[in-house]
Specification:
Layout lengths: L4 H16 L3 E6 L4 E3 L2 E9 L6 E7 L7 E4 L2 E7 L3 E11 L4 E10 L4 E6 L4 E3 L2 E9 L6 E9 L2 E7 L2 E7 L3 E11 L4 E10 L14 E6 L6 E2 L9 E9 L8 E8 L5 E10 L13 H4 L2 E9 L8 E10 L2 E10 L5 E6 L4 E8 L7 E10 L5 E8 L2 E9 L2 E2 L5 E9 L7 E9 L1
Parallel strand pairs: 2-8, 10-16
Antiparallel strand pairs: 1-3, 3-6, 4-5, 4-7, 7-8, 9-11, 11-14, 12-13, 12-15, 15-16, 17-18, 17-21, 19-20, 20-32, 21-31, 22-27, 22-32, 23-24, 23-31, 24-25, 24-30, 25-26, 27-28, 28-29
C-alpha cells in the first residue's frame, strides 16, 4: 500500500494542474520583465472555475496599492507610474469568494512619450483635421504603432511606426482626443489634445462662379494693373470658364499667361464674403467675417507644361477691424520646387523646406489648411499635395488694413525668365 501512494499523489497533482490552467489571469500587456514608459498600458483577461463567473478585476502596482478596478472578465487601461521597477499584480475576484493573480515585473523609464505637432491643444479647427505626431520609447525594440482616439474607446486611426500624419473628418463640436503610441515591449504612452471643430461656411465650385478679376503684375514694382500694354514688352492673360477638357467634373476654368515681359505675374482674385461679395454674403452687420477662424483651400489643377511656371500661388485673405491676414502659399516650380509662405509684417516669402513637385499631364490635388488664432495671429497649419501632408504650424502677425471687411481668395501664375506661355485648368472645390 505504501508503494502505491506516490503514484496516487502524482495523479492528483497533475489533475490539480490541469484544473488551474483553465482558471486565472492572463496578462497580454505589459510583457513580463519588459521596459515601458511612464504611461503603462495594462491589458488582461480572467477566467474562473466558479459557476457564477468573474466579478471584477484590479491592478496593484505595489502591494496594498490598488490603483484600478473594473467589473467583468477583462481590463484595458493606462496607468501612470513613476520611473522604477514594479512587481505589478493583476487580480480577479469571482462570485464564489475566490481570487486569482498574475504578477508582471516591469521597469518604468522616463524619456518616452508622444509629441503632437498638429492640431494644437485647445485650438479651433475645420471639419477636416490634420493630426501629425511622433513618439519615442525607452523600449529597446522601439515603437510599434500609433493611433488616434477621438473620444474614449473610439479608435479612429492606427498606423505602424513612430510617427503619424493623417486627416480625419469630424463633425462640429468639442473633442477630447488622445494620440497613443504602443511599443514592442508592451508599453504605451499618450498625449491628450482638446480641439473645437467649427462648422463654418463652405463655398463650393468657386472656380465657376462670378466675381473673378485678373491683373498683371510687371517688374520691377509688381503693382496690379488691368491692361498693362506699354510701348515696350507686354503681358497677356485670359480666363475661360466652362471648359470641358481637361476636366474632372465636366466644368473646369482655364487660366492662361503669356506675353514678352519676362518674370511677369498674373493674379486672379475673388471677393467671397463681406464687401463686394460674389457669393451673396455681404456681411452687412460685420458679424460673419470676424467669426471665421479656420480656412481650407481645396483645389484641383492641371497643366501639360507645368515646368514652364516660375511659381504657382494660392492665397487666402481676411480683413476686419483694421487688421489684414494674408495666408500666402507659393509653389516654386522653375524657381526651385519648394513651398514658401508669406510673412505679412516683413513682406517677404519664407522657404519652408517642403518640396513642391506638381505633376504634368495629370490632375494635382492641393489642400491648404490655415487658422486665425484667438489672439489674431496667422497660423500656417498644413499643406497636402497629391495625398502627402506636410505640417507647419508656423505663426505670424497680421498687418494693418483699415477700411473694409471681407474674405478673398487669390490664384496667381508667375512667368519665367522668357515668359513661357502656359495654361492651368483648375477646379476650386471649396473654401
Amino acid at each position: 500500500m505504501l508503494k502505491s501512494l506516490p503514484t496516487f499523489t502524482a495523479i492528483l497533482v497533475f489533475a490539480l494542474a490541469a484544473t488551474s490552467a483553465f482558471a486565472g489571469v492572463t496578462v497580454s500587456s505589459p510583457s513580463n520583465n519588459s521596459t515601458v514608459g511612464t504611461t503603462v498600458n495594462f491589458v488582461a483577461t480572467a477566467s474562473t472555475s466558479c459557476s457564477k463567473g468573474v466579478a471584477s478585476m484590479g491592478i496593484y502596482p505595489t502591494p496594498n496599492w490598488l490603483v484600478y478596478t473594473v467589473g467583468g472578465t477583462s481590463l484595458n487601461t493606462n496607468i501612470n507610474l513613476n520611473p522604477g521597477t514594479y512587481n505589478a499584480v493583476v487580480e480577479e475576484w469571482d462570485y464564489c469568494g475566490g481570487a486569482k493573480t498574475t504578477t508582471v515585473t516591469i521597469t518604468v523609464k522616463s524619456g518616452t512619450g508622444v509629441t503632437v505637432t498638429s492640431p494644437a491643444n485647445n485650438s479651433t479647427v475645420g471639419t477636416t483635421v490634420n493630426f501629425a505626431a511622433s513618439a519615442t520609447s525607452s523600449c529597446s525594440k522601439g515603437v510599434a504603432s500609433m493611433g488616434i482616439y477621438t473620444a474614449p474607446n473610439q479608435l479612429a486611426y492606427v498606423g505602424n511606426g513612430a510617427s503619424l500624419n493623417t486627416n480625419l473628418s469630424l463633425s462640429p463640436g468639442t473633442y477630447n482626443t488622445t494620440v497613443e503610441e504602443w511599443d514592442n515591449c508592451g508599453g504605451a504612452a499618450t498625449k491628450a489634445v482638446t480641439i473645437a471643430v467649427a462648422g463654418g461656411t463652405t463655398l463650393w465650385n468657386i472656380h465657376s462662379s462670378g466675381g473673378w478679376n485678373g491683373y498683371a503684375q510687371q517688374p520691377p514694382n509688381y503693382g496690379d494693373c488691368n491692361s498693362c500694354t506699354p510701348s515696350g514688352p507686354q503681358t497677356t492673360w485670359a480666363m475661360y470658364q466652362g471648359i470641358k477638357s481637361p476636366t474632372m467634373s465636366g466644368n473646369s476654368t482655364q487660366y492662361n499667361i503669356g506675353g514678352t515681359e519676362a518674370y511677369t505675374d498674373v493674379l486672379w482674385n475673388n471677393h467671397l464674403i463681406g464687401d463686394f461679395s460674389s457669393q451673396g454674403l455681404p456681411d452687412s452687420n460685420h458679424t460673419l467675417v470676424p467669426s471665421l477662424h479656420t480656412f481650407t483651400y481645396d483645389i484641383y489643377f492641371y497643366s501639360s507644361n507645368v515646368g514652364a511656371s516660375q511659381a504657382l500661388e494660392f492665397d487666402i485673405n481676411q480683413f476686419f477691424n483694421g487688421l489684414a491676414f494674408t495666408w500666402g502659399h507659393e509653389c516654386r516650380v522653375a524657381g526651385g520646387n519648394e513651398w514658401d509662405v508669406w510673412d505679412n509684417l516683413n513682406y517677404k516669402w519664407v522657404p519652408t523646406g517642403i518640396a513642391c513637385n506638381p505633376i504634368s499631364n495629370s490632375w494635382n490635388h492641393l489642400t491648404i489648411q490655415v487658422q486665425r488664432t484667438t489672439d489674431n495671429k496667422l497660423t500656417y497649419q498644413s499643406i497636402t499635395l497629391n495625398g502627402k501632408t506636410s505640417t507647419l504650424n508656423w505663426t505670424y502677425s497680421p498687418y494693418s488694413e483699415p477700411g473694409w471687411y471681407g474674405i478673398t481668395v487669390n490664384y496667381q501664375m508667375d512667368g519665367d525668365y522668357k515668359q513661357s506661355a502656359y495654361t492651368v485648368p483648375g477646379r476650386l472645390d471649396h473654401l
